[in-house]
Amino acid sequence: PPPPPPPPEQAAILSKAIDFQTQVTLILPVTTLTQILESVRTIILNWTLTLEEKGIFGEGLLFSNQEKLSATETPQNVTNFFGTVINPQVQQGSQNPIQINEQSVDLQGIEALLKFVRAKENELPLNDEDRKELNAELSTLEAQVISPKPKSSIIRECLYSLRKIVESAGGAAAGHVLVELAKQLL
Question: Which long-range contacts (C-beta less than 8 Å, at least 24 apart) are formed by 73-79?
Answer without folding.
Answer: 74/47, 74/50, 76/47
